[in-house]
Amino acid sequence: MQKEELIELARELKADEEDKAITLFEEFAKDNNINEEELEQILSKEYDCFRCESCHKFYCYDEYSFFDEVCIYCNDAHGDEEEY
C-alpha cells in the first residue's frame, strides 16, 4: 500500500457522488489486506478523509463533526428532527 494509492483513494472517496465510496473503500481494504477500521483511521489522520457513521459517505475535515462522528449534513438533519 503506497502513499500515492492512499492519496488517490481519499480523493476518490470524498469526490464520490454515486454512492460507490463504500464499495471502493471495502475493496481497497480487502485488496491490501488491511482491516477497514485501521484503513479508516489512516485516511482520517493522514489524508483528511472522514467516514460519516450515519450516511457512510466520506468527507473532508470541514464537512465532518468529530463530536457526533457524522458529517455536518447528517448532523443538521438530526438536529432538525429533535426540534419537533
Structural account:
With 84 residues, this protein is mainly alpha-helical. The chain has helices at 3-15, 21-31, 36-47, 72-82; strands at residues 50-51, 58-59, 64-65, 70-71. 56% of the residues lie in helices and 10% in strands. The strands form two sheets. The protein has a two-stranded antiparallel ribbon. The protein has a two-stranded antiparallel ribbon with strand order 3-4. It starts with a helix and ends with a helix. The mean pLDDT is 87.
Please specify the SSE layout and strand pairing.
Elements: H1 3-15, H2 21-31, H3 36-47, E1 50-51, E2 58-59, E3 64-65, E4 70-71, H4 72-82
Antiparallel strand pairs: 1-2, 3-4
Helix pairs in contact: 1-2
Condensed summary:
This protein is mainly α and 84 residues long. It has helices at residues 3-15, 21-31, 36-47, 72-82; strands spanning 50-51, 58-59, 64-65, 70-71.
Task: Give short descriptive properties of this protein.
two-stranded antiparallel sheet; 4 helices; 10% strand; globular; mainly alpha; 84 residues
Measured by DSSP, the beta-strand proportion falls in 5-15%
Radius of gyration: 13 Å
Let me know the largest β-sheet: 2 strands, antiparallel
Tell me the number of strands. 4
Cα distance spanning the termini: 47 Å
**Fraction of residues in helices?**
55-70%
Q: What is the global morphology?
A: globular
Order of helices and strands: HHHEEEEH
Tally of individual helices: 4
* Uncertain spans: none
Mean pLDDT: 87
Helix and strand composition category: mainly alpha
Strand order of the largest sheet: 1-2
